[in-house]
Design brief:
This protein has 5 domains: 56 residues, no CATH class; 25 residues; 72 residues, Thrombin, subunit H (Beta Barrel); 94 residues, Beta Barrel (Thrombin, subunit H), CATH 2.40.10.10; 92 residues, Pdz3 Domain (Roll). The chain is built from 7 helices and 20 strands. By secondary structure, it is of the alpha+beta class. It has a 6-stranded antiparallel barrel with strand order 1-2-3-6-5-4. It has a 6-stranded antiparallel barrel with strand order 7-8-9-12-11-10. Strands 14, 15, 16, 17, 18 and 19 form a 6-stranded antiparallel sheet that branches. The protein is flat and about 135 Å long.
Length: 396
């Protein structure tokens, strides 16, 4: 028996154990061991690779997260400074530049330049200039009284450049208003707004004849105060205060809101003695309209009044406060009602009276011939009286 190749199929063996009794040798197949070892190594490799990949991925992810830029959802924060500036410029242009330019072009057609001429050594000479607003297409123009005061001749320059002679229809020195007329038809007229609706902070535009040279000139500002009480020639005015720059040539011109409606008539005379800078005043159009209508129709203004002169007083114990009457005009409503000097007027038409301006404000809501109930303090007693408002024609 040939045993030389009996174990050819066994390539490698380990001597596991020799049993002395049986004399047998047990062989272990290394191919199975090798497969198991390979699988173990492969699992270890995969595990190590997974752990390494996880660590590497976490490191890279953390690094990227630390360098990531947050994008806000507020687009104003996202846009560049140039973009924001462009947006702001566009917005301001729409609100201010375009609107003011449009108002200037529209209202400017209805604003005129006025020249005041007086006889001098060398004949007629310019002694002043101002502005006016066309209130009727047939040539009626409203302006300030002081613009045409003392004039021997008045000329008007239209926005077209045409110069016309003007006649003075009527003036109201106390209100600093006047109406003049030129021989022309189909003139562009201003649109009146409601001055009672304006608020502090509203944008306003002054259109006029600045310094008598540039026509029309335009400045803009805001309403800085309402119902400012300014005294001029013994009269207390409730005017609109604005920081829109105005010059002497602007007097009589238009103060407009951002929609182009006239809410006031600029006046440089009122408040000129107050030594103020950076602000100017305008007669509110609601008060001016009735005066303008009266001047157009009658050449004068009829205004209800009491016919008294006095000053504000307050008793030491503050029990009595009102207007101490110093003088009562003859044939006035006050005289007819029995009011006497030394009386103290405390109330009119159910409203407390503390000053002459309070009286004027109350009478603005009445007309000549109206009856109002007043209260006076006399000799320690309050007396109730009825006053018929008389007529006060203010014309020069």
């Amino acid at each position: 028996m040939n045993d030389n190749n009996r174990y050819d199929d066994i390539k490698d063996v380990y001597w596991e154990k020799v049993d002395a009794d049986s004399g047998k040798i047990k062989f272990i197949n290394m191919n199975r061991r090798s497969t198991v070892r390979t699988l173990v190594k492969l699992c270890c490799f995969i595990l190590v690779a997974a752990v390494s990949g996880g660590i590497s991925g976490a490191y890279i992810a953390n690094k990227k997260e630390s360098t990531k830029i947050y994008t806000p959802d507020n687009q104003l924060l996202v846009e560049s400074n140039n973009g924001n500036k462009k947006q702001e410029d566009t917005s301001e242009s729409n609100i201010y530049t375009n609107s003011i330019s449009k108002v200037a072009q529209t209202v400017g057609l209805s604003v005129v330049g006025i020249s005041n001429k007086a006889e001098g050594y060398f004949g007629l000479q310019d002694v002043g200039s101002g502005s006016g607003i066309i209130v009727d297409s047939n040539g009626y123009i409203a302006t300030n009284y002081h613009v045409i005061e003392g004039a021997d001749k008045v000329t008007v320059r239209l926005s077209s450049g045409k110069i016309l002679d003007a006649s003075i229809l009527g003036v109201n020195q106390q209100a600093d208003l006047a109406v003049i007329k030129v021989d022309a038809k189909n003139l562009p007229v201003v649109k009146f707004g409601d001055s009672s609706a304006v608020k502090v902070g509203d944008i306003v535009i002054a259109v006029g004849n600045s310094l008598g040279q540039e026509f029309p000139s335009v400045t803009a500002g805001i309403i800085s105060a309402l119902n400012r009480k300014i005294e001029y020639n013994g009269t207390v005015y409730k005017v609109i205060q604005t920081d829109a720059a105005t010059n002497p040539g602007n007097s009589g011109g238009a103060l407009c809101n951002i929609k182009g409606y006239v809410i006031g008539i600029n006046t440089l005379k009122i408040g000129s003695d107050s030594n103020v800078e950076g602000i100017s005043f305008a007669i509110n159009i609601n008060d001016a309209k009735n005066i303008i209508k009266s001047l157009m129709s009658y050449g004068e203004v009829s205004k209800p009044y009491l016919g008294i002169y006095g000053e504000s007083v307050t008793s030491q114990n503050n029990n009595v406060q009102g207007v101490y009457i110093q003088q009562v005009e003859k044939d006035s409503g006050a005289a007819a009602s029995g009011i006497k000097p030394t009386d103290i007027l405390t109330e009119i038409d159910g409203k407390k009276v503390k000053s002459l301006s309070d009286i004027e404000g109350i009478l603005q809501g009445h007309k000549v011939g109206d009856k109002v109930v007043g209260k006076i303090w006399r000799n320690g007693k309050i007396i109730e009286i009825e006053i018929v408002l008389s007529e006060n024609k203010e014309s020069e």
